[in-house]
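A reminder before we start the practical. When you read a complex entry, don't treat the lines as separate problems. The point of joint prediction is that each chain is placed relative to the others, so the output describes one connected object in space. Small molecules and nucleic acid strands, if listed, are placed in the same frame. In the example below there are two entries. Take a minute to note the order of the lines before looking further.
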Amino acid sequence: MAFTLILGIYSLVYKKSPLRNGYLLVVSWFIYYQLGGAFLLLLIVSCLANYGFGLLIAKPNLKRPWLTIAVSFNLLILGYFKYTYFLVDNINWLFDTHWQVFNWIGWALNQLVKNAADEHSILLPIGISFYTFQAISYLVDVYRGDSDVVRNPLDFSFYLSFFPQLVAGPIVRAASFIPQMYQRFRLKKAEFSHAIFLISKGLFKKMVIADFLAVNFIDRIFEAPLAYSGLENLFSVYAYSLQIYCDFSGYTDIAIGLALILGFKIPVNFNAPYKATSLTDFWHRWHISLSLWLRDYLYIPLGGNRKGQVRMYVNLLITMILGGLWHGANLRFLIWGAVHGFGLALEKLMRQTLGFGHKLSFWQRGLSIFVTFQVISFAWLFFRAKDQATIRQFFYQVGHHFFPQNLAAGWESYRYVIGIFILGLFVIWIPNRWKEWLRGAFIELHFTVQILLVLLLVGLIYFVAGAGLQPFIYFRF
Amino acid sequence: MMTPVREFLYFLAIIVVLGTFLYLTGNQNPQPALQRVQPVAVDSVKQEKPTKIQVQKEAPILAESAEKSTKLQQQLFNPTTLVFVPDDSTHFQYLWNKLQHPTSALPVRVIYFGDSQVENDRITSSLREALQQKFGGKGPGLVPLDQYYNTPHHLMIELSDGWKIKSFQDEDFVNQSLLFKNTILTPEDDNGWFRIQRFKRRSAKPDYQIMKLYYWAKDTSQVTVQQGRTQIYAGTLKPEQKVSTLDFQFNRTPDDIRFDFKVKDTLNICGLSLESDSGIFVDNVALRGLSYPTFEWSDQEKLKQILDQLNVGLFVLHFGVNLVPYESDDYPNFKRHFQRQIDFLKRVRPDVPILIVGVSDMAEKQDGRFISYPNIPTIKAIQREISGRNHTAFWDLQKFMGGAGGMVNWVNAKPALGRTDYTHFSRKGADAIGKELGKLILNELKTEQHKQ
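Here is the predicted structure of the whole assembly.
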């Protein structure tokens, strides 16, 4: 409904680029205000500061010092809002101190406006990790000459704040997005149908698969692992693998679709990641914009593979650990990143010493996909569990209370969950040609039929979201 | 080529068709999977100390006003007193006397029987903490000898494969344990061990210092006990048809204890107690899936023998959620069986007071919204009626949660007090209940003190 309204006004302003960009900037900031409230000010500060830094870096003198200052500024802001608690908690834990978090920015704001912020807590602004990384990529690209500097502050703000990708990516490179801001609106019918297909696919993955599995199964297990058998605990980890993919890639599909309808092309962020035959392959397919960001702005500047074998492994580990911490300020994300880092290092080592990684036969490929999926799912456990006690309890239940004899009873109680789980497996492993056929067939349809299918999907979402809670193996509590 | 005007018309068509359909079918807008139901108004009784838990706000950016926060507290916790029948003047006098004028060298116990709501020492751990703060005592009390994990006490028990665990779920076995868990070693698997470990060593607080094994054996069994790598005991368990105990006392809480057994005939370990030499204990007996402890189908003589070795000051019966999914006008089976269990307790311990904790609030999803089950008041009324008839105390847990709609508020509270199955409590919710129950029991004991 809201998007239709946005589109209605957009149809009046789309012909003139400055007007269109200005309108979309206002809409983006309004949406951000609805989601993040006063943190809109922080986004505006970030837009203006990075716009200024861009101009300074583009000048021939003092490029490097300005880049250092600009990147430090962004990392400090991100660190302040995202990692202060992590830092203080760990210092307290290590040194048995009792430091308290104090919100200096909130305190400063309160000097200007009374009771504007709570000085004793720091809240995480929505989307800060994404727009900060996007800003850093712009600054480095300007420094390297890979992107032109944006000379209009409103245009730059629009690039950093564009609402479809503002909250959860993809992280869009300036070189691919900024030229589009000055182009005329051009969208073919097939492209529009593709966008509708993407939005529908995203909604299906998010609402029918991810949310159903989360509400009816995963959340319950992870909030009290000891209340469920080891079998259910194990199943919940695989289910979470499906949930996080369907949730995140579903969101990205919707973001790409909405942006396309507004005439902007955002790069693909997922490419069937669970079909990966190795962890290296997985990171070429999962959250691609982040993987490329980490490669271009962290791994390669650290030296990449140019400084010998040992440094390469160290760089890989540092990159993945920091990549893990980017997802959240907690030891669990660090472990998640480290599992991937060690896995990638081990893979490289095996490839070099044992000659793995050549062309795979059908069965070898199947086995590689299966093994990779196991490793990735294992790592997701650290990502999803709310604390280390949950992880410990998970392993305890799997080790001591596995109860495979409950499998038959499980089918009876979990049949809808299992049904959606199987549907999820189909979604992650569906052959590409089937996907393409489906997409092509939808695009070919007349608009009326498309609308009918979209309505059917809305009905399905309504039905699934409205369905009662699913009972469990121990139906009686 | 597409233009934004055409795109707008495309989306408008979807909205018009959808809106018309919903209008014609009389439906509301689709609801998200987890809809917050507006809290049901509760009696505005002021709390002594409002906790920091709040109902989740739509946009938790700025701090709520203090007044609004207090209102939210009242929606989450509705202080509810214990109910006694009018002609019962003794209340918890028996428990008070036991604590103040001990007639036994044994520490006093509150045995708390419950369903899955008390699994993993939930509710009981904070109740225990509240009572032990006042009357002393350390340790979780009775625990079943099985693969066991206790978060509040950082405790883990592991068993070798040879043991056969028989519980109330085994229809071919007559239960002989007050914990409804019988850990049996037979000559077929003549060797067996179990190990008790504390898993969090960093800043571990002192806990239990006494271990008691409740067992009966058909023939002589050999037992060795190791603390870490040091053997601290080697001996024999004599054949006993009566339940006996094997006791160990330590100078400090042991981190790692292992018991090894070699048996010639059946050895049944029907319970383990981790305790201290004085104070009060709250024993957690969690019976997942049950609506009452099944004393009537147990070996009552054996249960009595165990009870004879325990200094019980109060029984708590906390059941009800397993009945909720089944609608009935008066739940005749539940009434009959629940009464029989109380009869048993009254027969073996006629003076020990009983507290019945009423069914908690529980919600189901209807038309996309979570609402409380409509039959909860019926079940609660039956529990209260049984309580009145048997002169036991009664506590209305649903009312404490804010009445109908309470569980929805508890799930949406931040931090959550209820789990997303809209049935069970989160650790925080369970702690709040245990703490409240502890406060109520202590208040009763204070009243007894004033009487005397």
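Discuss with your neighbour: The CA atoms of residues 139 and 235 of chain B lie 26 Å apart. What might explain this?
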